[in-house]
Amino acid sequence: MNLEIDLHGLTHQKALNKVEDILLVSEVYKYRNISIITGKSPKLQDLIINELLTKYNFDYYIPPHNQGVIHVSDSELFI
Fold first, then answer.
1. What fold, for 2-78?
2. How many CA atoms lie within 13 A of 34 on its CB side?
3. For residue 43, what is the DSSP state?
4. Cα(79)–Cα(46) distance, rounded to whole angstroms?
5. How many C-beta atoms lie closer than 10 Å to residue 30's C-beta?
């Protein structure tokens, strides 16, 4: 199951809260891939990566052709 989150128009704190909620429930609903649309905000991307993705051990990548999105997967789902 895939999910897309659009963070346009949210403050950084609200965006972090929303992403954290989604990441935590992704274990229950078995979302295999989550696309986080940040726009081209390096500050927001750094916050999401450093405060959430690393903390909860999610794998992620930012594609070079669309740097306004972070693709996330839970590595444990693929074991």
1. Ribosomal Protein S8; Chain: A, domain 1 (3.30.1370)
2. 28
3. H
4. 27
5. 9
Report the Cα 17 to chain-centroid distance in Å.
11
- pTM, two decimals, is 0.85
Q: Which residues of 45-75 are buried (b: 16+ CB within 10 A; e: fewer)?
A: bebbbeebbeeeebebeeeeeeeebbebbbe
Distance of CA 30 to the CA centre of its chain: 15
Structure tokens at 13: 């704190």
Q: Per-residue pLDDT for the chain (79 aa), expressed as one digit of tens each?
A: 688 999 999 999 999 999 999 988 877 777 778 999 999 889 999 999 999 999 888 899 999 999 999 999 865 544 3
